[in-house]
Structure formats: structure tokens, C-alpha cells
Design brief:
The chain has 314 residues and is of the alpha+beta class. 21% of the residues lie in helices and 22% in strands. It has eight helices and 15 strands. It is globular.
């Protein structure tokens, strides 16, 4: 159950924070003592052990305050307050109401999408249902089909067919008719287009982090997002690029393979139509569609958004 936070202390007036704030439940209670530190592999250096120690200490310190430890929800959040309180500190926030006037929220039914784009050829991610590598090996799963045919596949539900951000470059011309139903988010973003996601109930993006700051804009349908702070990385079997071998922290079978992931600190968010979710660089997340869903991801913030250029991919 969600808990309502008390009013912000008076000092918040100095920050001009005109926000409605509440804490969203997370899986590991803040009051719980820190889990014991698992044994490190021999190749781990003293520097990495000290880094893990520092992140653990910082997480315990944040847990002293419900405002510092909680995931906040904001309304009428100005660009300046977003920068100072969330973007610069690298803190997630759920933003309500910023895209309430977009026509797409009412229009983007499967029938409307199919009629508007028609049989234009598009690229999507396919053959995912029986694969474990569909995020790591995106090229292997690229498929092409008339858009109307893809929508028919998506309406069936399941994780097999998903139009994702990685298909955006190929799909720009075909999907351009849909841009008229969107609006700007001028407080936080430039006017560059976002990257569209379209999928049916059950589409799933496994646990990973991104190398850019991302703003998710939920248009239709709903998604369940689990966020895990960077401090928990050593419990998440991070071996391949930006992906976790755990894949799904709600899957008991995966947790049996990776028991160190059971007690990670996590936040669960349900994205409803019109919601924006800011996910900073390095924050782990997994996303599951609860229904036929359309969403956009934006990275074109007014402020520098760098990190991918020098990521030590290994």
C-alpha cells in the first residue's frame, strides 16, 4: 500500500518546491538493517570493496529520512525545480499531469493506430518469447512487417512482439503521422522526437540500467516499473554490458539462482496514462506491460546527458 508523506518542512519553500509528494512503497523497508556483505570474488580490488562500503553507508544514511529515501511524486514541477531536485542529483521522480492535454491519450487505441499508420512497413523486436537474449542481442530479433500486422500481433498479448526504442531510427518515416497527437514537454526537454514503444499485455524488459538519463511518457495502457538504486548493483549479478543476470526480481525461479538479490532495496511504480517517470543514469529497472500499451522515451533534456561515451563496457 502507498503511504502519504507529511507536508514538506518549511525549508522547502526556499527551493520553491510546489509539489504534491508522497512515498511509494519499496520492497526492502528503510528501517531494516543493512544486509550482510557477501564475500567478494578474489579478483575484486580493495578500491571496489571501498566503493561498495561507501554506497552501503550512503543508503543507510538516506534511510533516516522518508523524503531522502522515498520515491517522490510531483505535480506542476517547473523545469528549474526538476533540475535542482531530481536531474542534477540523479534522483527518480514520478510526474503527474504534464502531458494531460496530449490528444494521443484519448486517441491511441489499437484500431486508431492501425488505421492511422496503415500498412507502412515497420521494424519491431520479434521472436522474444522463447529467448533469454532478446535485449542483449537486439539485432538477432529485428523483424519487419506492415504496421497493421504488427498491431494484430501486439493485441494478442505476450512478450513475442514489441516495438521498442531500438527500432526508432528505422521507423521514423512510417510513424510520423502519429506525431500530430503528441505535444511538447518544454519544461524539461528540447523539441526532438521521443522513441516509441508499442506492445501488448505481458511485454517485458528485463532488469538493466541505461547509459543516459531517460524520461518515460506513458500514453495509453499501464506498465509496472521496478526501480533499484545503483547502490544495489553488487547484489544483481551484473556481468553482461548493462544487464543483470537476475532478469526479474519478482521471479522466484530467478531468485533461487541469485539469492543475493532477494533483499535489494527497490521501488515499484505503476505508470498510468499521462504519467512521466524520470529514470537517472545507472538506476536499475525492469518494466512489464499490464495491458496493450504505448509509451515514449525521451533523452533530449535541456541539460547535458552524457555517460555512454566512456562507459567501461568490458
Amino acid at each position: 500500500m502507498s503511504k502519504t508523506l507529511p507536508s514538506l518542512p518549511a525549508q522547502a519553500d526556499d527551493m520553491r518546491m510546489q509539489m504534491a509528494l508522497r512515498q511509494i512503497d519499496f520492497g526492502a523497508a528503510a528501517s531494516r538493517s543493512a544486509p550482510s556483505v557477501p564475500a567478494k570474488a578474489p579478483e575484486d580490488t580493495l578500491a571496489l570493496k571501498r566503493q561498495d562500503w561507501l554506497m552501503e553507508v550512503q543508503e543507510r544514511q538516506r534511510a533516516l529520512s522518508p523524503y531522502a529515501a522515498g520515491l517522490l511524486t510531483a505535480e506542476n514541477l517547473s523545469g528549474e525545480d526538476f533540475l535542482h531536485s531530481f536531474y542534477a542529483p540523479g534522483r527518480p521522480v514520478l510526474i503527474k499531469g504534464a502531458i494531460a492535454d496530449w490528444p494521443a491519450l484519448a486517441r491511441w487505441t489499437p484500431d486508431y493506430l492501425a488505421e492511422t499508420v496503415g500498412d507502412a512497413m515497420i521494424e519491431y523486436q520479434g521472436g522474444r518469447a522463447n529467448a533469454q537474449d532478446y535485449e542483449l542481442k537486439k539485432e538477432k530479433h529485428r523483424k519487419r512487417a506492415p504496421f497493421r500486422q504488427f498491431i494484430a500481433l501486439a493485441r494478442k498479448g505476450g512478450n513475442d512482439a514489441y516495438l521498442t526504442a531500438s527500432n526508432s531510427a528505422a521507423n521514423g518515416p512510417a510513424l510520423r503521422p502519429l506525431e500530430a497527437d503528441l505535444g511538447p514537454i518544454d519544461a524539461y526537454l528540447t523539441r526532438a522526437p521521443g522513441m516509441l514503444w508499442i506492445g501488448g499485455e505481458g511485454t517485458f524488459t528485463p532488469l538493466h540500467f541505461d547509459l543516459t538519463n531517460n524520461l518515460l511518457a506513458q500514453v495509453t495502457g499501464s506498465k509496472r516499473v521496478i526501480l533499484i538504486p545503483p547502490s544495489q548493483a553488487r547484489r544483481l549479478a551484473h556481468r553482461s554490458h548493462v544487464f543483470s543476470d537476475v532478469r526479474d526480481v519478482t521471479d522466484e525461479a530467478r531468485l533461487k539462482l541469485h539469492p543475493q538479490a532477494r533483499d535489494v532495496l527497490r521501488y515499484e511504480v505503476r505508470l498510468a496514462p499521462g504519467d512521466l517517470l524520470f529514470i537517472p543514469i545507472g538506476w536499475w529497472h525492469q518494466v512489464r506491460s499490464e495491458s496493450f500499451s504505448t509509451m515514449l522515451t525521451y533523452t533530449n533534456f535541456h541539460w547535458p546527458n552524457v555517460g555512454h561515451e566512456n562507459y567501461p563496457a568490458g
